[in-house]
Every structure is written in structure tokens, then in C-alpha cells.
Amino acid sequence: MRADVVVIGAGQAGLSAGHHLIRRGLAPVMLDAEDGPGGAWRHRWRSLRMNTVNGIHDLPGMPLPEVDPAEPSAEAVPRYFADYERHQQLPVIRPARVRSVRRADGDRAGELLVDVDGALEGTIATRAVVNATGTWSKPFWPRYPGQETFTGRQLHVAGYERAEDFAGEHVIVVGGGISAVQLLDEISQVTSTAWVTRREPVWREGDFDQEAGREAVAMVEERVRRGLPPLSVVSVTGLIKTPALRAAEERGVLERHPMFTAIEPTGVRMADGSFRPADVILWATGFRAALDHLRPLRLRGRGGGIAMDGTAVAGEPRVHLIGYGPSSSTIGANRAGREAARRIARLLG
Description:
Elements: E1 2-3, E2 5-8, H1 12-23, E3 28-31, H2 73-88, E4 92-93, E5 96-103, E6 112-118, E7 122-126, E8 129-131, E9 153-156, E10 171-174, H3 178-188, E11 193-197, E12 203-204, H4 210-225, H5 233-237, E13 239-240, H6 243-250, E14 256-258, E15 262-264, E16 267-269, E17 275-277, E18 280-283, E19 308-309, E20 312-313, E21 316-321, H7 330-348
Parallel strand pairs: 1-7, 2-3, 2-8, 3-4, 8-21, 9-18, 10-11, 10-18, 11-14, 12-13
Antiparallel strand pairs: 5-6, 6-7, 15-16, 16-17, 19-20, 20-21
Helix pairs in contact: 1-7
């Protein structure tokens, strides 16, 4: 099978890319590993509602309709994505899992081979790939001494469902990002909690306006241009004290403790040598870019990241990464989809 371009992933970034590629007269094959529309939104915890979610932007050509602010984002956003796929007639094939992307030969202007399992089995030959696989499928679990001896529960936020599951248990929340503080607040309303982070949290004063957004994007762009791993969003923006978090602060929930040094069967050993019992450790420690299928291309450099030229991989203009680095936000993903389509149309002539 041959295709003008293959789009891997059908979340916000992938759908945007598909839309713009078709508008430029190209015929993308769009592959999505999920069973249905919605990308990572399908897996968000039920308590993350449309009035508490951290920003959802319209897909190109079809605005997000009005929704009940109390509706779980795991319902509203996948429904919007499904309507968008139908309205735009996007040719998404699912579930289709990409095993690998490799070069057909040594010709840098030649074809790429995309190996696929699932609803589409086999290999697709193409001249360009847009990778939009995001991060949700690759949660990051730090390693600490004694972790395997813990007799309680350990889970990553990727597996979190609801606070009520922890009633009567003491929960240690690990991580300094937005998900950590949101879930810390939520869980603390049904049971006892403690919050630990490696670094002192940085709270942002004032609103996160457009100028602040541009500054944050510029900082991440500079890192990926140099081939360094992208920074987390919160490391650039800081944490914003929403009304809910201010209320949590008043309840004493946001008292931060330095990271523990070891895990023991019934709790954790703190940096000062004291012991803190725990029934649950919730790792709100972020995600990494899901790029394992691109490993045959050897895109990573000495800095540990992938050097980027806009949306294209520096030195490999046939491969575009969107939803990566500065385009990991929903508005950034839309812009990256448009940019990738423009550059691929020029590449293919």
C-alpha cells in the first residue's frame, strides 16, 4: 500500500493535520491506535469536567459546541472529535497500531515504510509521516529504592478514576504539576493526603495571558531546536492558584514536603530520615513523548531529545512531530497541524 502521507494519531494534533493536508489536495492515511475517537481525552478521569479542564481549543473549521460545564471532558471532547471526523470526512482507520517507521533505503528523498497492526495490517510506503501520538500512552514512573516492596497501591495518574476509591486510606501524591495539585485537592476532600515534590513549586502570580503563552512556547521551542528534551508545561508556566486551589490552601492541603528518598513496605522514608506511613502512592509525574515506533529512524541526538526545525525533524524533513514540545497544547497542536501540512505539500511538490 502507498500513501501521499501517513498521519499517526487522531487526537487534536492529528485531526488538525488531516484537515489541513486534505485542504491542500493530499490524501493522507490516518492511523489511530484507539478504539474510538477522542485521543487521550477518552481516558481522562471522570471528575475532570468541562469547567475545570485546562483549556480546550476549537478544531480548525468546526467550533466546539456549547456543552454542559459539568459534563465530564471524557464524554464531551470525544463526542466533539467524533462529530469533527464525520463532518470533515477524515479517513481515520482504527484501531491501527504503528509498530515502526523505517527508511526504505539510504535515499534521503526516498520512501518511509510504516509497519501497522490491527484494523490495517501490513506496511505502508509513504514520502512523509506526521507523528501525532502525544504522551498519554507513555506515563513516566520514577524509580526509588524499595519501590517494589511497597504493600499498598501504586498508580500513575493515567490510571486514576475517582477520589472515592481511596476513602479511608492515606494517599501520598507525588509531583509538582497541574494534575498533581488538582488531584491532591480532589482526594483530600475524601481522605488524608500528603504532597511531595522534588523541587519547590513555583506559583504564578496573575493570569496566564497571551503574552505569557508566547513566552512559554518560545522557551520550549528553543530547547527542541537545540535537540534537548522538551520541558514540562508547568516548568515554564508555573502553577496558577485557581479558586479551588486557594480553598485547598486554606484547608492546609497544599503543604509541600521534599521528595522522599526511599519506599518501604508500609510507607516512605523522608529526606530528613523520618518515616511517613502510606496506603497509596499516586505518581503525578508526567508523561514522555510516545515515540518508540520511530526508534528505527534514530532521530534522537546527544542531548537526549530530537532537534526540530519547526514541526519537521532537523535533518529528516519527511518526518514531522506535532503535539510535541511547543505544540503540545491544544492551540499549539492546531497551528502545528497547519504548518506540517504546508511544509509537506511543498516537499511533495
